[in-house]
Design brief:
Four copies of one chain form a homotetramer. With 364 residues, the first copy, chain A, is an alpha/beta fold. Chain A has two domains: 170 residues, Rossmann fold (3-Layer(aba) Sandwich), CATH 3.40.50; 177 residues, Dihydrodipicolinate Reductase, domain 2, CATH 3.30.360. Chain A contains 14 helices and 13 strands. A six-stranded mixed β-sheet of chain A has the order 9-6-10-13-12-11. A five-stranded parallel β-sheet of chain A has the order 2-1-3-4-5, with helices on both faces. In chain A, strands 7-8 form a two-stranded antiparallel sheet. In chain A, α1 crosses α13, α7 runs parallel beside α9 and α7 crosses α10. Chain A is globular and about 60 Å long. The model of chain A has no long low-confidence stretch (mean pLDDT 95). Chains in contact: A-B, A-C, A-D, B-C, B-D, C-D. The interface between A and B is large, with 41 and 41 residues.
């Protein structure tokens, strides 16, 4: 790993998968980070990236990546001080912990450590203060390494839709029905014959994540532990024949009266640290509030380069009080872009300095 | 209109539309009814059926229908004693009332008269006793004519899923999120470019029907009026890129404790008069309870020739207590098959006799 | 394997795949054959069929098959005298030859032996006389066993479209462009993300089969060898996002002048032995000639239970003289139904008697 | 119409259609042209653009266009010196001629005047010299007005694929099979139910355009008339369920031997005036030559902002000698982008000066 630029070198774990591809595309001209190490499965290792990957994004593989040799997952061999992980949960479990122990700043899209007692499940617009949990991580690990995670792709839509309403009116409970895109399952993912002219009312493990992660995100770090938001969530999940963009139909009950207009206003006005800090990947408006028969995956998933969540069809619900539809580009704001924004935010807040310095020192 | 058979001649209103086509396909070898008059818009009138129709069903146009001349909607000219109506709501409003006044038994799929104070909104497995409302119709109209309607296509899925649970445990409220097929919008219907790789979170007028019709269906006829079931329903509706089959994700709260196993049992055991009477179009089991990641439109919409509703993914809901997924073939059990089954049931119960006799007398 | 019926027991190789499923569905009420042994991969072996299969067909698994235990591929253990093979080419290569040596009548959908020097590549409407090659097989093998194959799914559409024209006018050359359905790749087959909103201009090995198999089929068995029809074929193949039904756009040049009307007439009048013998699976008319913007997969693939090929859009081609579009249901007439019809035809012609008798003798 | 910028004001005819929308999106930050007048059908006229349009593109309506009032088609009222026409052929016939008579430079995507005896059917990379026909137009019309057209969307793919090969090796004849996207039919266009899980082997008038337009484009202007290239083309056209991107499978015969490698080389090296002039909308490489199973609509349609045509799967054809697949983004390089590039090229060559000056004079 050599880099003549002043950008921070980053190792990409799971570089050939759908999320890894998005990460590399987003990093192509990144002002802060540079894709320095490409790590993938043993099947891909040793081959050039262009040869190993089944590139699924429009446009071509970023030029400087094409001929880079993909390496196997060997935590001891990784040199970059920052690691962006798009590993499967099973691989991530040990590898990410090991990398953190080795002093790496691990910014992960994997689900393995999301619910750990001291790992921030971070959406910097919503719960930047959860970063306080890193102190707890540091206590049980020596050195500058840590793990920060971003949520499940559908959770991102739900968390953004609920956060402003929760702050202003208190969300007591919500039913969530998702219609999720094919890219969420990656490659090979869902067999085309299984989803042709069809909807599948099940995605393994997904409902559970949607019912638990938003409570963590909307909760707080207090007395050295996470305290979940006291809301009850119920999710029914579906795979639909759409390439990108997870849509969630949500009905919710609030503590204090919240009209559709109230909800629209707090959603529209919502901003967070990434906006204040004008981070490279941050959308100007994290939530786009739409009127009419919206949001629609084909029309709205790419708002602000896929980094804005769209909310629309806000109306009274006869059952729970309020209902709305939320959409997220599942592989951008719901995965690769979420991880990258987390890394940018950590960098802007100086939280990568120790790891970067550590490496600089270590490699001398 | 001449018919040498002993089958009851039927006029099909809206014969060239998607529902009209299904009706004609279902009537092709019907033991009781015969498609005697084909009525469609002025644009189609005067042409042979094969020439006027954009036939969208697999297989060919039934042979005896191909060369039949389509006639315009002229209520005075209709001779058949029984009328199956697949008209749009706006056309149905006056035409169906006029036909009933002229002594016809109008069995309608149109929404125009569904919520009329004395018109049964009939699913004979569920609310056969609503037929008592015909007495009220007779009081305000002379002669043997009447109107009976079947519900909106999505309502059928919801009503079947709720009916057995409501009877046994009392349904208090439910959130309903539908994922509806393209055939529900007919031809031309949804532009293909609008739904390609997309989901549209809106169908005009649909949510309102789903929130009101099941309450009527699950309510009762009492003291000469309909009394709605005291449940609250909330619906969010979506068009998905699927040809046939409306799927509904339902969360519901019951008066008395109902486990998923309880729900599965009452759903599985549910039967009604069409099963007892072994009506030609009646499914053996009106509700198929499925295990695994089901129901799925592509796999389950055609159960029992599209006349059975499928229910699956029954589980506890953290928010409302119980959740499940229900699927209906929207143009068969949700429309054409529903109307035809209503006609068969009315015939089996002798309720067409007056209209048929009236015509026989009248035409001599 | 026990069977109290008088039907001929059949072993299904590859019983859990897409073609195997179709075979079992077609055999559910078959008058001649009975699915007696279900053979699949080691992964499935030992489990009940319902447990092992990812059933992709509308409707339920045939009742008498559900609990049948799937067995691994062990040629020595197969008892049924007739074997229907839906194996992959690599497995079929040795297994089918071994089974033939063991006296089995192997009727195969696999490509492994299609171009063998003494194996009929059979479409009984077109080249029933190729069965003479079985004599050559018998010379190199002892006993009553043999292998008969059916063509590649796309080849079936091409062969039916060309055969009547070739006989009457001589086909000199043809360009063929296919648009092939997802079920042709089976499960898992094409990843859904790869084909969503897409067309893929490649299917491994397919163009070669389409360019060679029809020449064999339309050729003749003469002097103890196959002599290919002296036509030149060129194929460009595509996967399109359609569940079932392979469409081929064909331009062709004939030896003798052939107008579109001439072509339509010979196609329409085409019949063969399966029609004469009124075989159970034989379509009344093997080729349906359609007018208008046809054939279309969604509307025409299921003609005559999927056993008829549809041809339409017949017109003059400025380049080669004549053009047309041909459609086949790829898993029925193009695979499972083709194999089963071959078996029925072999039975009707007495060509299974030796194998059946052999088994009967052998098992006593 | 007022404009404080120095950009040339342009009137957009058919501004609310799919091609009109693309034009407006492409003009949003255009260095030369400014969308000054929005013209659409009477149904839209008088409404704001945001209100009148069913905006089908990702992202939002360009801000400065949203509130612009759409005007009806009144040729006398149009002030802009340059007119970009996305009208239907029937409306374009008279309106474009009338506008040219009124001194406008009409740059049209409509088919109405493409084959006129003195109207360039222009792809500036291929047949820039056809602009000489404008002299003939000027002789029959007074003033600075003229009409220039771009080809049918599928023709663009065919013309680019054939042009370099024709120049180097002479194309004698070719069979062309297209698989065309839904956006080519606009809104409402193809009913979704008609194309769901389907392919339609017909598009009205399309085959004829593909068989004639490339001959004009690849021909020459000589002795004051167009002389078609002496090649024979045959086309079979299909609508496939893909949102954007027309794919053409082409087999062709050349005068002089042309290997796949030869073809790839001349295609890869092809450049034209738009590249030399570095026009704003010009792709760096008008033809991208791809290896592997390419081009694919989902992956390749957006190369160089949709302005590059992709060619791949180049191989020997046993029938005609050479075969390949060509892809064009049908609403960008195949329509809106083609018209805009024509306008840019006319501007760079000074051919708009007279019309612009005329207007400047006229409006003083």
């Amino acid at each position: 790993m050599t880099s003549s630029s002043s950008r921070i070198p980053v190792a990409i774990l799971g570089a050939t998968g759908v999320v890894g591809q998005r990460l590399l595309a987003l990093l192509a001209d990144h002002p802060v980070f540079e894709a320095a190490e490409l790590i993938a499965s043993d099947k891909s290792a040793g081959r050039s990236y262009a040869d190993a990957v089944d590139w699924r994004l429009p446009g071509e593989i970023p030029r400087d990546i094409r001929d880079r040799i993909v390496r196997p997952l060997d935590t001891a061999a990784i040199e970059s001080p920052v690691v962006l992980s798009a590993l499967s949960a099973s691989l991530a479990q040990d590898a990410e912990e090991e990398l953190a122990r080795r002093g790496k700043a691990v910014v992960s899209n994997a689900s393995a450590h999301r619910m750990d007692a001291d790992v921030p499940l971070l959406i910097p617009e919503i719960n930047a203060e959860h970063v306080a949990a890193l102190a707890a991580q540091r206590r049980r690990r020596e050195g500058p390494g840590f793990i920060v995670t971003n949520p499940n792709c559908s959770t991102v839509a739900v968390a953004f839709a609920l956060a402003p309403i929760h702050r202003a009116f208190g969300v007591r409970r919500a039913t969530i029905v998702t219609m999720q895109a094919l890219s969420g399952a990656g490659i090979p993912g869902v067999p085309s014959l299984a989803i042709a002219d069809n909807v599948i009312p099940h995605i393994e493990g997904e409902a559970d994540k949607i019912e638990t992660e938003p409570r963590r995100i909307l909760g707080r770090w207090s007395d050295d532990r996470f305290e979940d938001a006291p809301m009850i969530l119920g999710a029914q999940v579906h795979r639909v024949p759409v390439s990108d963009g997870h849509l969630a139909a949500i009905s919710l009950e609030t503590d204090r009266a919240c009209t559709p207009e109230d909800a629209a206003q707090v959603l529209r006005e919502f901003r967070g640290e990434p906006q204040e800090l004008q981070l490279h990947s941050a959308p100007e408006r994290p939530i786009h509030v739409l009127s009419g028969a919206r949001p629609q995956p084909a029309l709205d998933r790419s708002r602000e380069n896929g980094m804005a969540v769209s909310v629309g069809s806000i109306a009274r619900c006869p059952v729970l009080g309020l209902r709305l539809e939320a959409l997220v580009h599942n592989t951008i704001r719901g995965a690769a872009g979420a991880a990258l924004l987390n890394a940018e935010w950590l960098h802007a807040r100086g939280l990568l300095d120790a790891a970067v310095g550590h490496r600089a020192g270590g490699s001398r």
